[in-house]
């Protein structure tokens, strides 16, 4: 039993930078060297995208463009991962870009998808609000019409 457990532990990858055993997404993210300039730039990019998501809530057409831009970027993540895997030495100290795309999914695609989910939630809320207003106006119009019919 202990041999099996030892084999399982030894098969868990150890990060080359921090020597942490990678057993979960959290330990994987903790093993990333976040002080690299390109990762800081990516973090700033995600903050800007979140700010644009909030600001464009009042501007429907701008929000549609922002939404489509982010969805397009998520769609291109696989190609970006391949490009980054081939050229990682030119901008990074470590090879983060695996063939399965776990790193790019966690640090690039998921934040963009969270922004798109926020936008969809705003759209659903607006749709329900508009439907409620419309139904209220219909009921008021019906009440006025019935009141006129009774007075005649």
TrEMBL record:
GO CC term, one of those recorded: nuclear membrane
Membrane topology, as annotated: Multi-pass membrane protein
Keyword S-adenosyl-L-methionine: no
Molecular function in Gene Ontology: DNA binding
Cellular location(s): Nucleus membrane
Transmembrane intervals: 38-57, 64-81, 101-125
Main location: nucleus
InterPro entries: TMEM18
Keywords: Coiled coil, DNA-binding, Membrane, Nucleus, Transmembrane, Transmembrane helix
Family recorded in the similarity comment: Belongs to the TMEM18 family.
Protein name listed in UniProt: Transmembrane protein 18
């Amino acid at each position: 039993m202990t041999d099996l457990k030892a084999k399982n532990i030894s098969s868990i990858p150890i990060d080359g930078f921090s020597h942490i055993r990678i057993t979960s997404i959290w330990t994987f993210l903790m093993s990333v060297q976040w002080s690299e300039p390109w990762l800081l730039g990516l973090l700033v990019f995600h903050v800007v995208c979140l700010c644009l998501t909030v600001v464009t809530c009042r501007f429907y057409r701008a929000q549609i463009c922002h939404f489509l831009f982010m969805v397009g970027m998520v769609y291109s993540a696989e190609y970006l991962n391949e490009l980054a895997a081939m050229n990682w030495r030119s901008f990074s100290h470590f090879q983060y870009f695996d063939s399965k795309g776990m790193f790019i999914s966690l640090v690039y695609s998921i934040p963009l998808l969270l922004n798109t989910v926020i936008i969809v939630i705003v759209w659903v809320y607006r749709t329900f609000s508009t439907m409620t207003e419309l139904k209220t106006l219909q009921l008021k119009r019906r009440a006025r019409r019935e009141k006129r019919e009774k007075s005649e």
